[in-house]
């Protein structure tokens, strides 16, 4: 490497970094910065090395220096958003919630499209029971990262708790379209569909209720509430052969079995 060639030192540092040789890589970037202290690329890669070693504050400082040298340097702003979000989560987990919130907002100042910052804001606002704010943040997370399954799932939880079952189910559907094996979302979907089944059944559409209970079991076949309500509905429809099938499926749960048996006896007699 030519001793006075900044780009050569930067290039060597990147090659060493790719080979997972952080110390020699850092030394190459240091030499580049001795020649050009405002080299945004070298500063950014120093930040990446700091981040990989767990030195988040040093990483953030390196990215900020890179942006001071070149405010348009996208790699620095994107990486700064990542580090600030990680710092926010660390602060939140240590009990400093407001400081964590501030870091998430700082992350979005660095990169207004960084979805995990919005997502983590949503988590904090949910924990603070500020659900309108949480929904807004989750929606922005999903808008900037359409494959963000966790954001859709958490939106569904809020809608479900508000009693908006259709909106909750829609969110869970979007979540599972992205991540079909997301067990939490599948369980939440089963709960929401069971509640919807009970709602429409009470409103007089027992067949639609049965359809909802059956659909719930497609997402969680051992969800006892769905089986229980399906058995009750079949009893009300005088489909006792189907009730017996439900008996067999939930016989492991003696409490549910006893309740269902009582309900069926009432229907029969």
Automatic annotation (TrEMBL):
Chain positions of TPR repeats: 40-73, 115-148, 149-182
GO molecular function, one term: glycosyltransferase activity
Keyword Transferase: yes
Source organism superkingdom: Eukaryota
Cited PROSITE patterns: TPR, TPR_REGION
Pfam family, one: TPR_1
Glycosyltransferase among keywords: yes
InterPro entries: Glycosyltr_41/O-GlcNAc_trsf (IPR051939), TPR-like_helical_dom_sf (IPR011990), TPR_rpt (IPR019734)
Coiled coil: none
Keywords annotated in UniProt: Glycosyltransferase, TPR repeat, Transferase
Pathway membership, UniProt: Protein modification; protein glycosylation
UniProt xrefs under PANTHER family: PROTEIN O-GLCNAC TRANSFERASE, UDP-N-ACETYLGLUCOSAMINE--PEPTIDE N-ACETYLGLUCOSAMINYLTRANSFERASE SPINDLY-RELATED
Name of the protein this chain belongs to: UDP-N-acetylglucosamine--peptide N-acetylglucosaminyltransferase SPINDLY
